[in-house]
Amino acid sequence: MAKYAQGWRRRDFARAAALLALAAGVPAASVRATMVSGDEAPSGRRRALMKEVSQRVLPRTTTPGAGDVGVGDFVILALAHGLDRSRAPVASAAAPALARFLRRDGSLRQLDWLEAELDRRARGDFLRAPLSVRTEILTRLDAEAFAPATQDHPWKTIKGLILTGYYTSEVGGAQELRYELVPGRWDPDVPLAPDARAFSSDWTAVDFG
């Protein structure tokens, strides 16, 4: 974890910026020019936390996991720039429970909330908990956030950005999914094998939920 204490490296920032540009549909140059600074700048522990959380959401299988490809940095950058309405004011019904994590404009500091919430559930340092405990904590958090009766929940935004970051990366878009930008022909009926992968160029076949 020592390498995270050195802060943002130019290569790491450029990689996350490129992912953000692809997901948001804006020129990469304009993203690079807006550095994450001040209160939004990530600490070394927070970068390590987001890398671990991303890896638990999409672990390594036959392809690298989300943490392996830098999705944690993407999420930090995306939240700082308000991707997926992450800088919108929090609904009043949820505000009391999240009050200490709100900015002056009413938007939520999602990473502050996530760090505190995971440490609370781990009864200490989430990153020092055994892998099985970290996985169980995130599994329960995910189940709570996506329960039928739950509406606005901070985890939904964070998880959505993890999925977006991964499936717009080279690994997610070209290895985890099948990449064929311009199919050579149209087949009205294609056999579906058990190991078939969705096409990354066909967004109607990609379920980020």
Question: What does the model show?
Answer:
The radius of gyration is 18 Å and the shape is globular. With 209 residues, the protein is an all-alpha fold. 46% of the residues lie in helices and 0% in strands. The protein has a domain of 146 residues. The two termini are 31 Å apart. It is built from nine helices and no strands. The longest helix has 15 residues.
Core attributes:
single chain, 209 residues, mainly alpha, globular, disordered N terminus
**Which class best fits the helix and strand makeup?**
mainly alpha
SSE string, helix = H, strand = E? HHHHHHHHH
CA radius of gyration is 18 Å
Number of strands: 0
Identify the overall geometry: globular
Helix fraction by DSSP (H/I, runs of at least 4): 40-55%
- Work out the strand percent: under 5%
The mean pLDDT is 78
SS field, number of helical segments: 9
Q: What is the terminal-to-terminal distance?
A: 31 Å
Q: Mind describing the biggest β-sheet?
A: none
Low-confidence stretches: 1-13, 23-35
Task: Please give a quick description of this structure.
This protein is mostly helical and 209 residues long.
Layout of SSEs?
Layout: H1 10-24, H2 28-32, H3 44-57, H4 71-80, H5 95-98, H6 110-122, H7 131-145, H8 154-167, H9 170-176
Helix pairs in contact: 1-4, 3-4, 4-8
